[in-house]
Design a protein that fits this description.
One of its GO terms (biological process) is tetrahydrobiopterin biosynthetic process. The chain is 40% helix and 18% strand. It has 113 residues and is of the alpha+beta class. It has one domain: Transcriptional coactivator/pterin dehydratase (Gyrase A, domain 2), CATH 3.30.1360.20. The protein has a 4-stranded antiparallel beta sheet, covered by helices on one side. The protein is globular, with a radius of gyration of 13 Å.
Length: 113
């Protein structure tokens, strides 16, 4: 069975459309491979991360930005003083792709010691 490390070790593949989004069952199976807290709704996955202060929140945001740049797959992020909500979807196909789960796993790895 694939786990978070397997997903985090993968690289995103360019997606410019022309392929169908993941079926709900496929997305649910990939969701099980992520850390707890990720939610599947409305053709996207999201998770809210909490921190002690603004500095830690912004350090996390910058780390997510680095991952996104490396993978060329970018989430929507809503940032507050001590929270950051990260949402992934693949806009080019109007739904979820494996890239969304790969990046979510990489984000999870940022916080695993």
């Amino acid at each position: 069975m694939t786990n978070i490390c397997d997903l985090a070790d993968r690289k995103c593949k360019p997606c410019e459309g022309g392929v169908p989004p993941l079926r709900k069952e496929e997305a649910e199976n990939l969701l099980k491979q992520l850390e707890q807290g990720w939610q599947l709704a409305d053709n996207r996955i999201s998770r809210t991360f909490s921190f002690k202060n603004y500095y830690q929140t912004m350090a996390f945001v910058n780390a997510v930005a680095w991952v996104s740049h490396q993978e060329d797959h970018h989430p929507d992020m809503m940032v507050g003083y001590n929270q950051c909500r990260v949402e992934y979807t693949t806009h080019a196909i109007g739904g979820l792709s494996e890239n969304d789960f790969i990046c979510a796993a990489k984000v999870d790895m940022l916080l695993i010691s």
